[in-house]
Amino acid sequence: MRETELYRPLKNFLEKRGYSVSSEVTDCDIVARKGDEVVIIETKTKLSVSLLVQGIRRKEITESVYLAVGLESGSKWDHRFRKVKKLLRRLELGFIAVFLAEKGAKVEILLHPAPYKGRKSKKKLFDLIKEIDNRSAELNVSGSSGRAKKYTVYRLEALKIASFLEEFGVSQPCKLVELGCAKNTRSVLYNNFYGWFDRKGRGVYSINETGRKALDEYKKLLNEKKG
User: Which of 93, 125, 186, 223 is the most buried (most CB within 10 A)?
Assistant: First the structure.
C-alpha cells in the first residue's frame, strides 16, 4: 500500500460533501474548504508518532484536523482503534479510515476532532488560504515522495513566465507583466531559482533548454489531469 493511494478516495469523499480539495499546501497533505470552514487531513499508511505530531501542529491552523490511515478491506480495525481512540480524543484529533480494495475504496470517519484549546496562528491560516487561492492548477497528489515535484504558486508562476518567453521570445519583465504574469516577475527571472531562464542583456530574458523541458513536463501533466 502506498500513501498516494489514499488521496483519490479522500478527495472524492470530500468533494461529494461540497468541499473544494487541494493537496500538498504549505506542508499539509490535504486541505478541504467549504465557505469559511477549513479542514486539514494528514495521511499515512499506518498510525505513528510522527503522524500524531503532524496532526497536533495543524491544530494551530484549524480545529478541524483529521488523521487518515489506509487499511486493507476487511481488516479488524475496530479492536485496535479502541486502544488509540482515547489518545486521539486527548489530542483533540479526528480520525478517518480508508479501506482499500480492488473494487474500490471506502472512507469512514471514526472520530471527529474536539475543539482546540491552544492558541491558533492566524498567519499560518492566512498563508495556507493564500497558497490555495493563488494556484492556477491543482496538480499535486497527497502522499507523494519528497523527490516528487510540488506545484506551488511560485513554480506555477515561473512556468507561466516560461510559456510566454517560449511564445514571444526574448522579453523584458514589464512586458511579461503586461501579458498577465505576476508582479514579482522581475524577481523570479533575476533569482532564476529553477534554472529555466537566461539573461540576454540588461533587463531582458529568454527561456533555455531546461525551461523548455520543464514546460513540456507541465503540459503533459496537465493533459493527464484533463484525461
Answer: 93
Give bridge partners of residue 37 from the DSSP assignment. 34
Q: How far apart are CA 73 and CA 58, in angstroms?
A: 28
Residue 187: count of CB within 10 angstroms of its CB: 11
CA proximity to 84, closest of 57, 51, 60: 51
Which of the four pLDDT bands, split at 50, 70 and 90, describes residue 94?
Answer: very high
Residue 59: all three cell numbers together: 491544530
SS3 20: strand
Q: Is 195 helix (H, G, I), strand (E, B) or coil?
A: coil
Residues 6+ away with beta carbon under 8 Å from 225: 137, 139
Q: List Cα–Cα distances, 136 to 20, 158, 159, 185, 223, in angstroms.
A: 14, 12, 11, 16, 15
pLDDT tens figures, 114-129? 887 777 888 888 888 8
- The answer, yes or no, to whether residue 76 has pLDDT greater than 70, is no
Alpha helices in the chain (DSSP H): 7-15, 49-58, 77-90, 122-133, 153-168, 173-179, 185-191, 209-226
H/E stretch holding 110 reads strand 104-111
End-to-end CA distance of the chain: 25
Environment class of residue 163 by beta-carbon count within 10 Å: exposed (0-12), middle (13-18) or buried (19+)? middle
User: CA 44, CA 4: separation in Å to the nearest integer?
Assistant: 9
User: Grid coordinates standing for 137?
Assistant: 492548477
Nearest CA to 168 out of 157, 184, 180 is that of 180
